[in-house]
Amino acid sequence: MNRALIVVDVQESFRARPLWAQISNPEIAERVNRLVALARAAGDLVVWVLHTEPGSGDVFDPESGHVRLFEELGAPAEGEPVLHKTSHNAFTTTNLQQVLTEAGVTELWVCGIRTEQCVETTTRLGSDLGYRMVFVTDATATNAIGDLSAAAIVERTEAVLRDRFARIATVAELEAEQKAPAA
Q: Which of 41, 138, 160, 167 is most buried, by CB atoms within 10 Å?
């Protein structure tokens, strides 16, 4: 089975917004880096996705200079695609499906910013396209929305994805599985 890690929107655009002060997981880069190391060690494809809103004049406009990966993630390795999307999911406005098909990928691990928005939407669409999906919940981040706390949003997202669209996993669980000897 070929696998890919999809890193969705872990970009400076979010840190440039005042809302970043209330993000649920400000240390998301540390967990994403652990997943990237795990994927690379297994020979899995790592795909980086950045959200863009060209011409908007805001932090998602490429002209702002904020549409770039968090510095602490380091540069993508040679051969790791960096895709720019303009939709909520990583498939619709990119060639992600083509990249995955050409690589023979059948399973996706998904992480990133806005647990209930771009990460969840990518997970749902990936499931609909036939990929075996793993939603790495502790490698996502979000903010409260109205009366819903970030924790409640994460809980809701896990509940609606679990066993319908994706397996819910943590970074530590995936690390333990990779270290376990094959049966």
A: 138
